[in-house]
Design goal:
With 147 residues, the protein is an alpha+beta fold. It has helices spanning 21-25, 120-146, and strands at residues 3-4, 7-9, 12-18, 31-32, 39-45, 55-62, 66-73, 82-87, 96-105, 108-118. Strands 1, 4, 6, 7, 9 and 10 form a six-stranded mixed sheet that branches. The chain crosses the membrane at residues 122-144.
């Protein structure tokens, strides 16, 4: 199950969620190896807080070694302003834990959205489980009806 949190950093409130509406509405969105999900970053400038940040740098971390960096210019944000940015099609080539995190400087990070990437074979087993589960339930229901 994915985990997400809202982070306040340098006068901004930052939230990450899946860009696809079905992934947002399901409680347990599934991510599979070879997929290319998109993510929506919601940025809100907090009123009354000063910010020296001119850009926010996010990283998508695959496993423990591979990272993809994405930066957004935030120098023209006004107090109370909100924007949504989309990180399009993050190719999931590694299985395991994957995180979307905010680089906070001097080697520190805020993990904002964490999810697990399953191997493609897990999708086959999931579909077989559903098909056989429906078939078994149907056979049992018919058998009980005619007994």
């Amino acid at each position: 199950m994915p985990g997400s949190q809202t982070v306040d950093y340098e006068g901004f409130r930052i939230r990450v969620r899946p860009a696809f509406w079905l992934r947002r509405w399901t409680r347990w969105p599934l991510y599979f190896q070879g997929g290319s999900p998109s993510f929506q970053i919601q940025l809100a400038r907090l009123p009354g807080e000063a910010s020296a940040a001119e850009r926010l740098v996010f990283e998508v971390g695959f496993g423990s070694t591979a990272f993809r960096e994405i930066a957004f210019d935030v120098s023209d944000f006004e107090a109370g302003e909100q924007r949504r940015h989309t990180i399009g099609e993050v190719f999931l080539s590694y299985t395991g834990d994957t995180c979307l995190r905010l680089r906070a400087g001097s080697g520190e990070f805020h993990e904002i959205y964490v999810f697990y990437v399953s191997p493609e074979t897990a999708l086959v087993f999931l579909l077989l489980n559903v098909v056989f589960g429906v078939a078994f339930t149907t056979v049992v229901a018919l058998a009980l009806r005619f007994l």
